[in-house]
Hints:
Elements: H1 2-10, H2 12-49, E1 53-59, E2 66-73, E3 79-90, H3 92-102, H4 107-110, E4 112-115, E5 120-127, H5 132-136, E6 139-147, E7 153-161, H6 175-195, H7 207-241
Antiparallel strand pairs: 1-2, 2-5, 3-4, 3-6, 6-7
Amino acid sequence: MTNLLQFLNTNSGALTVVFTAVVTIATAVYAVLTWVLVKETRMMREVQTEPKLQVAVASFDFAVHIVRLHIRNIGLGPALDVAFKPKVISGGACAEKLLAEFTDVNFFNVGLKHFGPGQERVSGYTRLNQDHDGKMASVLGIDVTYSSATGKAYSDTLVVDMSELKGGYQLGKPHAYAIAQSLEKLQKDIHSLSTGFHRMKVNVYSSEDRAQEMAEEQERREQWRKEQEAQQVAQTDRLDKGPAA
């Protein structure tokens, strides 16, 4: 113990420097970690409060060859003062015509004052079975500018590459569409019956008809009973007479 105390007293200066260096490094590491946590917290807050626009091409349920653009706000905050500037990236005259069909909706011209979280707007539609090759080779772009509720400005270019639709197909009819068609047909049938346009084919019996039917059935049974009794009497007579001599 005496030697240890003597060693500490002799090297107290060096030990103080080492300890100070260790504390300084630990403090620096803690500061760096705190800065990283603050940065991640800020990013999480922005994700939870800031808007984010995206565009996708989707077809109708009842016709896979009819498509339109779906513009959505996939962020968790509202987009304010949204402005659109559509343009052709490649595809020439066919792409220009396709862009005109998609943007034949007024919000592309006047913009959107408020585009809430999860809200969606759809463009005009086009038929892919008309000038299919030209439309599949078209690449469109939509320059969008908007701001968040916190005042942060955003600017982005949403790209629509029509070649991504190549090879797509649809098997059968979607269940929701098939159910809707069945309900519509049922509604038409009920309407036709209620208005008398179509009449139900039914047989209607009155009480007199039922009584007459029962009497006829009873008569048939009585006739059958009499025939059976006559057959039994004839058979008894043959047995009584015995075989012919």
